[in-house]
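User: Can you predict the 3D structure for this chain?
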Amino acid sequence: MQVVIGEDSALFREGLASLLDELGHRVVGTAAAADSAVAMTLERRPDVVILDVRMPPDNTDDCARAAVTIRRAAPEVGILLLSQHIVARLPPDLVGSGRFGYLLKDRVLAVEDFVNALERVAGGGSALDPEVVAGLLSSGRSALNTMTPREHDVLALMAEGLSNAGIAARLVLTERTVESHVGAVLAKLGLTMADPAAHRRVRAVLSFLGAGAPARGRA
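Assistant: Here is the predicted structure, written as structure tokens:
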């Protein structure tokens, strides 16, 4: 897997690059500013680009905006946003499109889970931080209000990228029971079997993300 890293902290950037190199992935470029991360990604077309949400020149949501630019110009590139805190809103041009992840930075410390998330994003899937999902599930969207607590649990684990088998193992349920809950979640979110199977789960967990979650700190 080829990776570009956009991160203004030299220590974190080089540490992440070293980790990925040790795990057999190829870091094809690193950048300390949003504009250079965009240019490098569009030139080298990696499998995935990792972007810190707050980077120079503005140190606000520069890389969230950079991610939108990359998605429009190179939709085949997976995008994984990292943030110190949960942002109030996710870029609407990214949510629901697949090849997208959003994790808190401390998730990198759980190396196996982080690499699995990175590989899912590179492969066309999604990887959303469970704290992001928890915030969204408490934000009061009407469709979510019709779900049972167990359906909320299943939706949160779907957002983390778990398969039905993975959800069953986490919640100590049978796969048949999980399939039933997933079907109920899809129905309550208005997603039908007419939607391509590969995208139904992603759309289920991302369909409400474009509206944003309650602010829980600065990115």
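The mean pLDDT is 79. The beta strands are 2-6, 26-31, 48-52, 78-83, 100-104, 126-128.
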